[in-house]
Records
---
Amino acid sequence: MMRYLTLLFLSACTTVPGTGRSQFNIFPLSEDVRLGDAAWKNTLETEKILPVDSPEHQRVDSIMRRLIAATQQQHPTLATTFEWDWRVIQDNSQINAWCLPGGKMAVYTGMINFVENDDQLAVVMGHEIAHAVARHGTERLSQTQAAQVVLAAADGELNDREMRMAESAFGLGVALPFSRAHEHEADELGIYLSAAAGYDPKEAVNLWRAMEQKDGRTPEFLSTHPSPSNRAAKITALLPTAERIRGRNK
Ligand SMILES: [Zn+2]
């Protein structure tokens, strides 16, 4: 038992690609794909999904393909292990988007209506892909008591309770807000991804400002992606590197 635990903890320390932060994650990458896939199937069955020939889906589709190419360039191992998929959810009341572990992306029509241009939509989607690339979902799940249970069920199906705990760690259902450290990391990796895909990284600053200054109800996106202090200033400091990446990919 001791030997098993030692092995488990040794293999549980991984490094986040792109930032070098060391991470405690008891799940192998293949589990990100499997768990994300289970949550995705659930979403496709329960949400109102726009047809793939709708203008909204087509818009997300072209941005997503460029972001996947950028992810393949910057994080090749992860990008080829991911089983990418993407859909638009018809819900104008939700200013939201998320990307599950393993690369399943959902964008709500409320978010599509909110952004001012494709650059801002690419920033949102790049930020979400960054959470998946940095494996924040299974990192958070590793910090909960459900983790061992979910891992033990690796060859079987998750029951409803296990699924809900996993989904909450992934930002679905009764979602936990991401930590400020995770937000910083997703801002940084995400802006590099959208820049590598050819989108204007300066729009990241405008996007977050507009989100924070929105009158009335707080966008769902902000409640699960709280603003770290000085977000705009920190993103501005990343712009020279982002512009260089964008220039190299022109
Ligand atoms: Zn976030």
Note: The chain has a mean pLDDT of 89.
---
Amino acid sequence: MKTSLTHKVLQILKGKCPQCGEGDIYETKYKTFLHIPKMKDRCEVCHYDFNGEPGYFLGAMYVSYGMAVLEGIIAFLIASSFIKEFSGLALASIVVGVIVVFSIPNFKFSRIIWMYIFPYKL
Ligand SMILES: [Zn+2]
């Protein structure tokens, strides 16, 4: 199994198992952008337990928070650089809108990133 950073990032983006790198973590690929992904209980290749212990994914909230803040900052910088005549309220609405739209991908990728940072071992 390759362990380079580029390979790990590709595995995270594809939603692959943190142990074997082959099995899918989520049941389905994106049907629509707002489709809530369902996580599998175990890897179909190596039987890695994706759910871990109770409360294992609480830490993924910190990852999700960081992603939301980063997306909000990027949305603010893009919106404020392209549209000069916007009021503060309009800019804040754009930032909140971007964060809401990206909340489901954040939910999915924060759990995957959490599993790669802190893999669950029995
Ligand atoms: Zn696996």
Note: The chain has a mean pLDDT of 88.
